[in-house]
Amino acid sequence: MIAVTLDSGRLRWELGPVSVAGIYAIHHDPTNSAYIGMAGNILDRWRTHVRELRQGRHHNERLQALWTSADPSEFRFVLLERMESREYIERGGSIETRWYEHYVNAQPNTRLLNAFPPGKSNGRRPPPPPDAESTDPD
Of 78, 82, 83, 63, which Cα lies nearest the Cα of 4? Predict the structure, then answer.
């Protein structure tokens, strides 16, 4: 397993190669929450996640709300499954779905932050974060 942590505000590899395609998770252990994703270059994707989260403009409102309320050092970036480029192109979506279902079925106490299961958004907007409705605008 390849894991990456934030160290002094920078992503730090604990082991493994620099450019990897595959399925990943962003874990927040204190709340037992996870976001599942896939990328052709995971380190670049993680850098994009961190940049957008720091700027408060991440596409996933649930992950953004958790990041904003928590200490960024509490997040772990984990490679769940490495893939060769061809496999990523041909089967990446189905493998991401398998990992999503693994979290739903085998780790039922994990709160998934994905707005929709992989491939299921069909252009719909995700629901607001659970506490968004109770937020006072003042």
Answer: 78
